[in-house]
Amino acid sequence: MSLGPNSTEQIARARADLRMGVPVVLDHGAQGLLVLAAETIGPARMQAVRALGGQPVMAITAHRAATLRARPYDGDIARLILPPDVGPAWVQSVADPADDLTNPLLGPFPSLRDGDPAPCRTAIRLAKSARLLPAVLALDVPAPETFAARHGLTRIALTEAEIALSAASPMHPVTAARVPLKVSKAGRVHVFRPEDGSEEHYAVEIGAPSRGVPVLARLHSACFTGDLIGSLKCDCGAQLKAALAQMGAEGAGVLLYLNQEGRGIGLANKMRAYSLQDQGFDTVEANHRLGFEDDERDFRIGAGILREMGFSAVRLLTNNPAKIRMMQAHGIGVVERVPLRVGKTCENAEYLATKAAKSGHLL
């Protein structure tokens, strides 16, 4: 048995490297792709990439390409040819829409038509999984194993990376302890850790719910602003409190607290989206300008935790039909949708209307 990291562990290393501005190498046979996160690239590494020769490209999602009026010949992504005289500031401006309205990038943005886009597509997914903006600087390099070893870089086989990034990481229980709560003195908190080195997730169990009958359950995505500091821009904090209160009143339930802040884009990107909303864009438009999908969350995590805890059917506290579909698709029966309509404010009325109109929430 090798002491070295497997592909899942290499992905975790690669995430950390990209967040620090360190390149990684995607290995696809005789060729490799040197990848740097657009958000964290610095002048020294940009210069080092230039010194390697070749034609660097800037890979962005089709959503971001639409904002820049660049052609996404690859369908879901675009590979922009990097101009010869630009530095990190240009790369970061292409990735980050913060100044789109005040200092718009004029282009043109010529895009590649030829070559295999799969490595760039995987590189963008890797950046997303690191909670970074979905944009990368990429350069083809020969002999990727030798290149990575010479520069001390993390190297991942492309196919293995694709599999690891598309599969739901298995969840393993770490520990659990009794935690008396305001809504119920019979509270218990479980901690689950994924194999892929990403964020831990939590289950709050109220009472002693039977595993033989559908349990009152909620999949609650972490919201620092709404849950902890009382933000009025969303209904998350009110939903969290109301769900726990209903479980306490019934004497049993389980609330999954999933660390998927900002619909899965992370707190920093959520704050970027908030800034775009202040410029007049709705929540979906803001996500698209950043290069993200409407919703990047992975509710397979919730299904995995429920199965690990021994539950097979739920009465789901939700206004989001996508959660129901995902639970049912991954082995958790949903026998009832329990509405959770709380927390509407003057400040979040438009946000809730957008969720209903564009994301199908039942509000």
Automatic annotation (TrEMBL):
Keyword Nucleotide-binding: yes
Binding site for GTP: R218, L219, H220, S221, A222, Q239, E261, G262, R263, T283, T318, K323
Cofactor-binding details, from the entry: Binds 1 zinc ion per subunit.
EC number(s) given by UniProt: 3.5.4.25
Gene Ontology process terms (BP): riboflavin biosynthetic process
GO CC terms, sorted: cytosol
Keywords: GTP-binding, Hydrolase, Metal-binding, Nucleotide-binding, Riboflavin biosynthesis, Zinc
TM stretches of this protein: none
GO MF terms held by the record: GTP binding; GTP cyclohydrolase II activity; zinc ion binding
Domain of life of the organism encoding this protein: Bacteria
Annotated pathway: Cofactor biosynthesis; riboflavin biosynthesis; 5-amino-6-(D-ribitylamino)uracil from GTP: step 1/4
Active site annotation, chain numbering: D295, R297
Family: Belongs to the GTP cyclohydrolase II family.
Name the record gives this protein: GTP cyclohydrolase-2
Native source organism of the sequence: Rhodovulum imhoffii
